[in-house]
Design goal:
The chain is α/β, with parallel strands linked by helices. Helix content is 48%, strand content 22%.
């Protein structure tokens, strides 16, 4: 299974240095399009998303994450970004309501 990072150029290049593949995007909508293509691919096991774009489309991502067990989809802080605290109960509530 492949590992793919999706986000800004600096985010993607950081993961390319670690051996992952990458898809550079310029905004949240482009990130969602790339995510949908990667899910349909079938050979991707893990998708790492830059949280600066992902936070702007959180509702859509919650629906996608609830629909697919594979690939795993994780949001990570972009380089230079602030780590944020995750409210897992809020995530579960969001999944239950969609």
């Amino acid at each position: 299974m492949r590992v793919v990072a999706v986000g800004s150029k600096i985010f993607v290049n950081a993961f390319r240095l670690l051996g992952a593949e990458g898809v550079e995007v310029s905004g949240p909508r482009e990130m969602l399009e790339a995510l949908r293509r990667l899910i349909e691919d079938g050979s991707v096991g893990l998708i790492l998303l830059s949280d600066d774009f992902a936070s702007e489309v959180a509702q859509e991502l919650a629906v996608i994450k609830g629909k697919y067990a594979v690939p795993l989809i994780y949001e990570l802080p972009s380089p230079g970004g602030e780590p944020r605290e995750l409210d897992y109960m809020e995530m579960v509530r969001g999944l239950m309501s969609s």
